[in-house]
Amino acid sequence: MKHVTYADKALFLDDDSADWLMEYARALGSATMTDTVTLRGIGMDGNEVEATFLLNHSTELITQTTQSGLQGPKNDEAVGYMQEQTRLILTPPPARSVDDPLEIS
Protein backbone atom coordinates (compact mmCIF):
# COMPACT_ATOMS: atom_id res chain seq x y z
CA MET A 1 0.00 0.00 0.00
CA LYS A 2 1.31 3.45 -0.87
CA HIS A 3 0.25 6.93 0.15
CA VAL A 4 -0.26 9.05 -3.00
CA THR A 5 -0.54 12.83 -3.00
CA TYR A 6 -1.86 14.68 -6.04
CA ALA A 7 -3.31 18.20 -6.28
CA ASP A 8 -3.55 18.66 -2.49
CA LYS A 9 -5.47 15.39 -2.14
CA ALA A 10 -4.14 12.17 -0.67
CA LEU A 11 -5.23 8.56 -0.91
CA PHE A 12 -3.92 5.05 -0.50
CA LEU A 13 -3.33 2.89 -3.59
CA ASP A 14 -2.07 -0.66 -3.92
CA ASP A 15 1.64 -0.78 -4.77
CA ASP A 16 1.22 -1.70 -8.46
CA SER A 17 -1.25 1.11 -9.08
CA ALA A 18 0.92 3.71 -7.35
CA ASP A 19 4.12 2.54 -9.06
CA TRP A 20 2.58 2.45 -12.54
CA LEU A 21 0.83 5.78 -12.04
CA MET A 22 4.23 7.35 -11.37
CA GLU A 23 5.90 5.52 -14.28
CA TYR A 24 3.10 6.42 -16.71
CA ALA A 25 3.18 10.07 -15.58
CA ARG A 26 6.94 10.10 -16.21
CA ALA A 27 6.55 8.61 -19.69
CA LEU A 28 3.77 11.03 -20.64
CA GLY A 29 5.79 13.96 -19.33
CA SER A 30 8.88 13.00 -21.31
CA ALA A 31 6.76 12.77 -24.48
CA THR A 32 4.78 15.95 -23.66
CA MET A 33 1.56 13.96 -23.86
CA THR A 34 -1.58 13.99 -21.69
CA ASP A 35 -3.96 11.30 -20.48
CA THR A 36 -6.35 10.58 -17.63
CA VAL A 37 -6.40 7.45 -15.49
CA THR A 38 -9.10 6.46 -13.01
CA LEU A 39 -8.01 4.33 -10.06
CA ARG A 40 -9.82 2.91 -7.05
CA GLY A 41 -8.21 3.49 -3.69
CA ILE A 42 -8.83 4.31 -0.04
CA GLY A 43 -9.49 7.95 0.85
CA MET A 44 -8.13 9.64 3.93
CA ASP A 45 -11.49 9.02 5.64
CA GLY A 46 -11.04 5.25 5.17
CA ASN A 47 -13.72 4.90 2.49
CA GLU A 48 -13.17 3.37 -0.94
CA VAL A 49 -12.94 6.09 -3.61
CA GLU A 50 -12.41 6.44 -7.35
CA ALA A 51 -9.94 9.12 -8.34
CA THR A 52 -9.23 10.35 -11.84
CA PHE A 53 -5.70 11.66 -12.37
CA LEU A 54 -4.87 14.13 -15.13
CA LEU A 55 -1.32 13.26 -16.19
CA ASN A 56 0.85 15.58 -18.28
CA HIS A 57 4.28 17.19 -18.38
CA SER A 58 3.54 19.32 -15.31
CA THR A 59 1.94 16.67 -13.10
CA GLU A 60 3.04 16.91 -9.48
CA LEU A 61 2.68 13.48 -7.94
CA ILE A 62 4.19 12.00 -4.80
CA THR A 63 4.12 8.34 -3.76
CA GLN A 64 5.30 7.23 -0.34
CA THR A 65 5.54 3.86 1.31
CA THR A 66 3.33 3.31 4.33
CA GLN A 67 3.09 0.88 7.18
CA SER A 68 -0.70 0.83 6.89
CA GLY A 69 -2.35 -2.56 7.19
CA LEU A 70 -5.14 -1.51 4.82
CA GLN A 71 -5.77 -3.60 1.73
CA GLY A 72 -6.64 -1.32 -1.16
CA PRO A 73 -8.77 -2.33 -4.12
CA LYS A 74 -6.92 -3.70 -7.13
CA ASN A 75 -6.82 -1.81 -10.41
CA ASP A 76 -5.71 -4.60 -12.73
CA GLU A 77 -7.37 -3.16 -15.86
CA ALA A 78 -6.02 0.37 -15.28
CA VAL A 79 -2.54 -0.96 -14.44
CA GLY A 80 -2.55 -3.02 -17.65
CA TYR A 81 -3.56 0.08 -19.61
CA MET A 82 -0.76 2.17 -18.04
CA GLN A 83 1.79 -0.60 -18.71
CA GLU A 84 0.79 -0.87 -22.39
CA GLN A 85 0.70 2.89 -22.94
CA THR A 86 4.06 3.34 -21.21
CA ARG A 87 5.57 0.64 -23.44
CA LEU A 88 4.17 2.33 -26.56
CA ILE A 89 5.56 5.72 -25.52
CA LEU A 90 9.02 4.45 -24.57
CA THR A 91 9.40 1.89 -27.38
CA PRO A 92 7.00 2.83 -30.18
CA PRO A 93 6.41 0.33 -32.97
CA PRO A 94 8.37 0.95 -36.18
CA ALA A 95 6.75 3.25 -38.72
CA ARG A 96 5.19 1.64 -41.78
CA SER A 97 4.25 3.05 -45.13
CA VAL A 98 0.52 3.48 -45.67
CA ASP A 99 1.00 1.27 -48.74
CA ASP A 100 2.27 -1.68 -46.64
CA PRO A 101 -0.43 -4.30 -46.19
CA LEU A 102 -1.34 -5.17 -42.59
CA GLU A 103 -0.10 -8.55 -41.50
CA ILE A 104 -2.80 -10.52 -39.73
CA SER A 105 -1.68 -13.53 -37.75
- Structure class: alpha+beta
* Average predicted confidence as pLDDT: 92
**Rg measurement, Å:** 16 Å
Note poorly predicted spans: none
Number of strands: 5
Number of domains: 1
The share of residues in extended strands comes to: 25-35%
Number of helices: 2
Numbering strands along the chain, what is their spatial order in the largest sheet?
Answer: 4-3-2-1-5
Helical residues, percent: 25-40%
Order of helices and strands: EEHEEEH
Sum up the overall morphology in one term. elongated
Largest sheet: 5 strands, antiparallel
* Cα end-to-end separation: 40 Å
Written overview of the protein:
It is a single chain. The chain has two helices and five strands; from the N terminus they run E-E-H-E-E-E-H. It is α+β, with helices and mostly antiparallel strands and 105 residues long. The protein has one domain (2-65, 73-90). It has a five-stranded antiparallel beta sheet, with helices on one face. The longest helix is centred in the first third of the chain and has 16 residues, at 15-30.
Per-chain topology:
Blueprint: E1 2-6, E2 9-13, H1 15-30, E3 35-43, E4 48-55, E5 61-65, H2 76-90
Antiparallel strand pairs: 1-2, 1-5, 2-3, 3-4
In short:
With 105 residues, the protein is α+β, with helices and mostly antiparallel strands.
